[in-house]
């Protein structure tokens, strides 16, 4: 399907299917609305366009995903900042997760069945991401993680986390994992911002055991994963916000 036809059909569908947010303006309500929108768009097939068939997609160019995000943002159906996280985390899973894991998990994110977060920033590293100190140590066919993350968006709502850890010194000693947030040893503490929202959280990892097959890529691939992920974050977040501001 070409971009113009896709946009017209999405617009017609949105005109006929009311996804207007409810009257409550709390952050919890915004997240619930985000999942509601993703679920409706996925069930109707729109959320699946632009994604590969290997993860439940219907194919087509990535521009179709951008068009869908524009329509969602311009109509005020979901906060553009948190909506855009699918464009950050899903491509990362497709590129770095074992194929079977990506095939299982990505549809859960796209469909609104789950929310994910990314565990990157730490209290002691500031803007120097490569100085992170959350450690992962191998123990047989598992890894044991200890440390702390901060400013983790939506952590208190997330079922999964893309996490950067330290497994050796330097940039090549950073390794990424895909964690279940209900794993024993994970504690999430929401952070109240100056505008009275709990959008971020700090996350503590105390002897958290993660199976080796939840590693994203290979040991030491974490820095490259971050360099691949951050352009998605910068581009899609602003793309959707610009669409929102121009309406």
Short description:
The chain is built from 7 helices and 8 strands; from the N terminus they run ααααααββββββββα. It has 247 residues and is an alpha+beta fold.
* Cα gyration radius (Å): 18 Å
Structural class: alpha+beta
Q: How many separate helices? A: 7
Proportion in helices: 25-40%
Distance between the termini: 26 Å
Secondary structure tally: strands: 8
User: How many structural domains?
Assistant: 2
Shape: globular
Helix and strand string, N-terminal first? HHHHHHEEEEEEEEH
Q: What's the mean pLDDT score?
A: 93
Description:
The chain has helices at 3-16, 27-43, 63-74, 80-83, 86-96, 99-110, 222-245, and strands spanning 116-119, 135-139, 142-149, 160-166, 174-180, 186-191, 200-211, 215-216. It has 247 residues and is of the alpha+beta class. It has 2 domains: 3-108 and 230-245; 116-219, Butyryl-CoA Dehydrogenase, subunit A, domain 2 (Beta Barrel), CATH 2.40.110.10. A 4-stranded mixed sheet has the order 1-4-5-8. β4 and β5 (174-180) form a beta hairpin. α1 runs parallel beside α3 (63-74), α5 runs antiparallel to α6 and α5 packs antiparallel against α7. The longest helix is centred in the last third of the chain and has 24 residues, at 222-245. The protein starts with a helix and ends with a helix. The model has no long low-confidence stretch (mean pLDDT 93).
């Amino acid at each position: 399907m070409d971009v113009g036809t896709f946009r017209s059909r999405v617009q017609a569908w949105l005109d006929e299917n009311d996804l207007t947010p409810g009257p409550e303006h709390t952050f919890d309500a915004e997240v619930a609305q985000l999942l509601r929108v993703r679920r409706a768009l996925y069930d109707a097939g729109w959320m699946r366009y632009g994604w590969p068939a290997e993860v439940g997609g219907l194919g087509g160019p990535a521009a179709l995903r951008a068009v869908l995000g524009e329509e969602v943002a311009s109509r005020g159906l979901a906060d553009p900042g948190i909506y855009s996280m699918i464009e950050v985390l899903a491509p990362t899973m497709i590129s770095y997760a074992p194929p079977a894991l990506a095939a299982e998990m990505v549809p859960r994110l796209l469909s609104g069945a789950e929310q994910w977060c990314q565990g990157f920033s730490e209290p002691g590293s500031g803007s120097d991401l490569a100085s992170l100190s959350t450690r992962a140590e191998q123990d047989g066919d598992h890894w044991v993680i200890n440390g702390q993350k901060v400013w983790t968006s939506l952590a208190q709502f997330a079922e999964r986390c893309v996490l950067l850890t330290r497994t050796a010194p330097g940039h090549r000693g950073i390794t990424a994992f895909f964690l279940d947030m209900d794993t024993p040893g994970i504690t999430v503490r929401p952070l109240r911002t100056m505008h009275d929202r709990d959008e971020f959280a700090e996350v503590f990892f105390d002897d958290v055991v993660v199976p080796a097959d939840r590693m994203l890529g290979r040991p030491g691939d974490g820095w490259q994963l971050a360099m691949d992920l951050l352009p998605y974050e910068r581009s899609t977040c602003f793309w959707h916000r610009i669409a929102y501001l121009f309406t």
